[in-house]
Fold these 4 entries.
Entry 1:
Amino acid sequence: MNELLLEATTAHMETVYCMPQALGTQPTHYCPGCTHGVAHRLLAEALDELNMRERAILVAPVGCAVFAYQYFEIDGCEAPHGRAPAMATGLKRVQPESIVITYQGDGDLASIGAGEILHTAARGEPITVLFINNAIYGMTGGQMAPTTLSGQRTTSSPFGREGAPLQMSELLAVLPQTAYIVRRALHTPAHIRKAKKAILTALKVQEAGLGFSMVELLSSCPTNWGMSPAEALEWIETHMLPVFPVGDFKVAAAVKEL
């Protein structure tokens, strides 16, 4: 009787949540509470839904996500520190049919790679950039990053940062050749859903050949912030959002038609 009941029950069950094909089975090396894993999942889901997995190439950075290519069942490569946009430019030019994505942290993109991202965006290279902003250098011990908040204490600014952080989305949005520049956050389900939609749009922008796109994602770093995972998510809401407001900073007219 129990077997018949189980069979009847499972026959009417519908799968509503499963592991994306684009996501690998590599055990995570990220710290507990880090939202890199959320960003990975969103990218994998987007690649599956847009049927881009077989054409995608991921360019990994130097930083916490240095092994990002191991987490995906897609082609991937490693760029020197900060040079992911330059490598992605070359890949896209020799393989224009590919979907080329860089996955970069704030130290990689906004510090040593500031020149690369600026000129790649200025040229309007048709690549997609995922920019993880956790306001600190994560892998190397919690030093001050270009995105560290004013007054924020880090291992290299123990008395609090002087000056203001770089707001990369606002900076790149003013360049005429950028097509889609937005900022989202990863600390609540509602924000995560909006982040997924933005990643889908950014990939569609590349598919349509509309130009350079970047999705900035506010992320947590509980270990280097010295907080619990729950406290770190709250810190994004109370401290990062006032300085890095989520929103659309550049949406070209052609993008709105996608």
Entry 2:
Amino acid sequence: MTSYLVEPDDATPLTADERQGLLPSHVTVRSELNELEQQNILEAESWLLVRKRDPVSEAFGKTLHKRMFGKVWRWAGHYRKSEKNLGVELWQVPARLQEVFDNVRYWIEHQTFPADEISVRFHHGLVFIHPFPNGNGRWSRLMADVLVMRLGQPRFTWGRSSLQTADETRRVYISTLKAADNHDFAALITFARS
């Protein structure tokens, strides 16, 4: 059994202070942590079903992250306070998020891209920034799902996998994100609908 402290190879590592934010005291192995986080995320998805809010805002993003992880992590819904192996520098997080929200609002208003592309670009912008200590991929995918549904399209399937384990689906997802880092969104759009 793997300790909950051991992060998967391509995951965002938590600092010692961030690990101290774990709320359930009984968690000792990664599978327990994953299960608790997944239960919390399912509750957040149920909460979303009765909310018809605009996902393109800082307040919504923080609230959704807290709903997704708030029963597991004390820092849920709060921006990270440490530098990470991914994402922008800590001091850039608020301004870069505002830039993403502003761009997405503009794209929607001016129909710059189709709904799927706007939503995938939204996801990429959010995950690229990595605003939270952890859970950024799951959070940004759900943010994109909410947006694409608000724009009248079906929810994304994201490879029909949890993307939590280091399997082929996760490797494909990571490679499509890297292509999007270079402004090539085609593979990420295809993956989101696969």
Entry 3:
Amino acid sequence: MARRPVKKAKADYLIQSVSRALDILEAFTVHEEELGVTELSRKLKLHKNNVFRLLATLETRGYVEQDKETGNYRLGIKAFEAGHVFLHHLGLRKQARPSLEELARRANETAYLGVLQERWVVYADMVETAHAVRVVSRLGARLPAHATALGKVQLAFKAQEELQELLGKGDLAAPTPRTLTDPARLADHLAQVAAQEYALEDEECDVGVRGVAVPIRDYTKRVVGGIGLVGPAARLSLERLEGELVPLVKTAAQQVAARLGYNLIPT
């Protein structure tokens, strides 16, 4: 009897040049909007000539663009368009939008939907406050999950093994002096977040910015995202966050969960 061919893992089909091009795109962050060939070469451990050729290809297709004065590169319009298509088709975003709008109206603060991606949280949708004084938009941003309310409220419900793999490597970013980076203290903090079902952000990602977030669960009871509020610390005191805004955000999260079928599960 002939043996069936062994099915290869998808990793065996990787095209190195494509993988390296994606590494370049992923090297750009909110805090590193522009990077030069030398910086990318050092960061990705690639020869400068290879980096230049990859950048030239990406630039031709519109995924990066070069600043003519500095010579540095930044993400191009095509990268934005691809991300926009992803967000448009994200089912969670569609289901969360009505509650996001209502939350922003009731709290009169900027409301966000966030989705966890490994050690990062991506701000997938937002509705801005009517206040003239507001925090710089985080829409589309990819920020350290452990430094944000939207990130922590999702990390808190990860299995311990997965959480240790994500955060136990050390080297956690510290955007402000308030950011928790010590593994033991962070683990204790996330346990508290899980127990109370909400997370606060107290100037841990940006100085002068506070926030609150609650997890969103789907029909499998799995945490699939977070919804929350972000605003100036001067307007979002810790007393206001916990007394007035936590109940509003919890209501919004429950509404989204209901649309995702969470209430259909027998208790």
Entry 4:
Amino acid sequence: MMKWKIAGMMVAAVMLTGCFQDTVNTVENSEKNMQAQSVNVQNVSTDSFLKNRLKIVRVDKVTLPDGLLKVQVSAVNVRTGFFSEMWSWFTNDNPYSITYRFTWLDQNGMEVNTAASTWIPLTVVPGDTIRLSAVSPNSRCKDFVLSLRENN
């Protein structure tokens, strides 16, 4: 009788784990042929909760023929697994919602004020890789800052 109770509890645990998992699986080309210029980054995190959810995995930039700067930041939501999913379910924050914005800088590091510097909302599913991309508003922009925050 005790074996059946243990077996029943194990089956229930497996079923509950399946209910909480809402992640993304991906397949991609393993032979990368892209020519983007990779950017060395410096992360400044003031939100430890967000820091432990999104991991920046790649930052690329390219100067377009018309002199505009195009930037793409790839990040992955590393919040996966049973306990993370359970916590997200209890706190009702799965999928995860963020906002981001690009701030453009000129060759002297001064901010270039544009209408494009607005906060953009985005929903991120656990395990999903997101790509945040933007094109500079004019050819005076030579650098950028990406800001991320939780969307409350």
